[in-house]
Amino acid sequence: MPPAGMTMPQLWPSLRQEDESLLVLGIDTATLVCSTAVVSEEKLVAEYTLQVKKTHSERLLPFIAAMLKDAGIDLGSLDGVAVAAGPGSFTGLRIGIVTARALGQALEVPLCGVSTLEALAAQHPLFNGIICPILDARRNQVYNALFQGGRKCRRLTEDRAISLARLLAELGKRQEDVLFIGDAVPVYQETVADALGPRACFMPQESAICRSGAVARLGLAKIAAGRGCTWRELKPNYIRRSQAEIKLQAQAAGGD
Amino acid sequence: MNKTLILGIETSCDETAAAVVSGGSRLHSNIIASQAELHRKYGGVVPEIASRRHLETVNFVIEQALSAAGCTFSDLAAIAVTYGPGLVGALLVGVNTAKTLAYALGKPLLAVNHIEAHIAANYLVQEIQFPAVCLVASGGHTTLLYLAARGEAELLGATRDDAAGEAFDKIARVLNLGYPGGPAIEQAAQSGNPEAFSFPRAFSGRDDLFEFSFSGLKSAVINTVHRLEQKGEKTPAADVAAAFQQAVVEILVEKTRLAAAEKKVKTVLLAGGVAANSLLRDRLEQVLREDGRKLFYPPPDLCTDNAAMVAAAGWDLFREGKFAGLDLNAVPVLDIFRQGE
Ligand SMILES: [Zn+2]
């Protein structure tokens, strides 16, 4: 469906003007946190973050509207929209992505899907050891990716769904400290501490949750480099297929 | 360009649709991306799969609807969307798309009840004389309504268990006729004998005259099929389909006829996917003609889920200035009466 070979420089030729900084809107609805932010190249301009049991569908758009109004930012002055594209709750991801796609279609601005796990890790780039975001994936698994912290922060694994036992076994083979962040930490903190002892590090809650400021910052870097996409290409990264597909495939395999 | 162009968006079940309608009756475009093929191997709509496909499709369908109508976002007067009833995850895609477009474009947002949208499909086809009685029958609902005027629907009765279309789907599955069940049953029934089996018709008493029940009929059909299987006999699928279809149609026709008589209306409307069933159309038309009433129904592509009907129903909200807020949410279970107004 999306036309192939469409690149950013053609679509948005004069994205960066000499005297003005890019403004990118960030959205994160991958977990219970509903967060929206605006960043420029120099600073975090605004960030609204809410962590309550209220549907993202009701909250997100009024939140964006209120934040932009309070920050005195005209919707038309946005140069792009970045969104936490997954992993995370399927419904939560969809609300963020659908909102970003509609903004991209209506405003004709570039979009950027950012890994939820990468955005979490990007809040602690200088940690001296392994950064290990974990999101609750239910079915006895967590969504996870590993990052090497330090001055040259880099990714060690793909985004994946993995059982906590396997993740801990993987980390047990290493020597460095491991920083655990993400919404699965409160669920598994004791097990993790038991398995890794003093190597396991935890952040206070406010530094351990998804924040759209980080999503917007990572998105801005990609969009500025011409590596954004249009609404045609932006999709969630669910990691998992639907239960119905998994079941059907298992039945087909069992029937052979 | 016409000042009353409304973009309609529909994602309540397994059709992703967008359409442009002006003045609440003139169709400029009507784009429907059906997911039926995607759900066929599961024998019914899988909500998670439907939600995923809606997300991938909805903006493309909107783009096509605008270009087919020869207009752009800036020409629109408002954006209308189905916010319920339906599958919550599926509805969320349309609702959040519509809200965001309305916000980003600075256009009013219209929250449309899917059942009222089905009724409004009739306004796209012809001028309707009110008052009228309308039967909405589809995979999700079986509802009888009294319409004093356009946009003024009053509930007379609904189904207490399965929707008519749902019963069609289940029986089609039992008979291995495929999905969706409505067209499958209708086709199989063409070569069947409707008198080969006698299935029960539930016509209730005076106090629940306009309510429907299809679970007893459904069980009777399933039991018949199982009994034949136990005896090792081959199920005459065409006969069962024909007898089942006849029973459903008789129930729908009888209740609608009674409602039209009680409300003393000259006009009766059919709406919803089951309204595409030709036996239902023919029988109902016949009995109503005997009573001196006239039946109207939309063409098949406006009976099944589409966004033109959403845009048409949105027009009634637009005229009254009933705009929805940016906090609009999907409402999976929704009465015909708009609450909190
Ligand atoms: Zn419908």
How is the CATH topology of the largest domain in chain B named?
A: Nucleotidyltransferase, domain 5
Largest interface, with counts of residues having CB < 8 Å to the other chain, equals: A-B, 34 and 33 residues
Text of the CATH class of the largest domain in chain A: Alpha Beta
Q: Helices and strands of chain B, in N-to-C order? A: EEEHHEHEHEEEHHHHEHEHH
CATH superfamily of the largest domain in chain A: ATPase, nucleotide binding domain
Kindly name the structural category of chain B: alpha/beta
Question: What does this protein structure show overall?
Answer:
The complex is a heterodimer of chains A (256) and B (341). With 256 residues, chain A is α/β, with parallel strands linked by helices. Chain A folds into two domains: 19-115 and 211-239, ATPase, nucleotide binding domain (Nucleotidyltransferase, domain 5), CATH 3.30.420; 124-207, Nucleotidyltransferase, domain 5, CATH 3.30.420. Chain A contains eight helices and twelve strands. The two termini of chain A are 34 Å apart. Chain B is α/β, with parallel strands linked by helices. Chain B contains eleven helices and ten strands. Chain B has helices spanning 36-40, 47-69, 88-105, 114-120, 164-174, 181-189, 215-230, 237-262, 278-290, 300-303, 308-319, and strands at 5-10, 15-22, 26-34, 78-84, 109-113, 132-137, 142-149, 152-158, 267-271, 294-296. In chain B, a hairpin with a 4-residue loop joins β1 and β2. Chains A and B meet through α2, α3 and α8 of A and α2 and α3 of B. Bound molecules: zinc ion (ZN). Residues 114, 118, 138, 140, 272, 305 of chain B line the site of zinc ion (ZN).
